[in-house]
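Researcher: We're teaching a course module on how sequence relates to structure. For the next exercise, students receive a sequence and then see the predicted structure as tokens, so they can try to spot secondary structure elements on their own. Here is the exercise chain.
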Amino acid sequence: MVRHVIVWKLKEEFSPEEKEKIKAEIKAGLEALAGRIPGLLRIHVYTQGLPSSTSDLMLDSEFESVEALKAYSVHPEHVAVANGKVRPNVAVRSCFDVEVPTGR
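Model: And here is the predicted structure for the students to work with:
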């Protein structure tokens, strides 16, 4: 199994209200991919971090395999969300992918 975690910092030009709207749209778009992309086991977007957070939102997802993660990255539905909701609004993206034993 592969865990795919991304944290994003939104562009500073957005007001707090705009950031909340953008975060909700990213969450809705990405979580709607559940059950639609082969090999995607779980997907959740966190939008309300603790005050100590240095990022605005986090994607936490799991895939059957490295191959499934690669397929997700180019899947048309994922690309549409990434290009339409994420990339235009994000200043910084950090990613951590790791293979984890099944059952963890």
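Model: If you want an answer key for the exercise: The mean pLDDT is 96. The first helix runs from residue 16 to 31.
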